[in-house]
Amino acid sequence: MTKPNKSVKLPELTSEDMPAGVAEAETENASATADGTAGAVTEANEMLNLDAVMRIPVNIQVVLGSATMQVANLMKLRRGAVVQLDHRVGEPVDVVVNGRIVARGEVVIVEDDNSRFGVSLTEIVGVQAKFEA
Q1: CA distance 93 to 120
Q2: Angle at 82 between CA 81 and CA 85, to 5 degrees
Q3: Of 1, 33, 46, 72, whose Cβ has the fewest other Cβ atoms within 10 Å?
């Protein structure tokens, strides 16, 4: 049994409720409409929507590898113990954004700060499939 669809009205946002930059774009939209340039309004709306998306924070992780072990062995781990991972030295690491693999790369030492690691991307995952569809 399916529930009937209900329409929900979202509250109107005022310029005080909007993040910085969004209210300015809305003002530009209003002036473009007054000028009668509908194309400028559409372009400004698209830029506004893209700008809002570009501000969304994402969690990026680099996965060096993983391991599986029994709880009994996990409880025996002490300081200095080595956990052997399933990836080997030189194999690409996975770059994960919000739980999804988006790229693979090689671990490098950051030039500006020799005490930090970085990832040099060697492969972007799934991009080809998106453009072929």
Answers
A1: 10
A2: 150
A3: 1
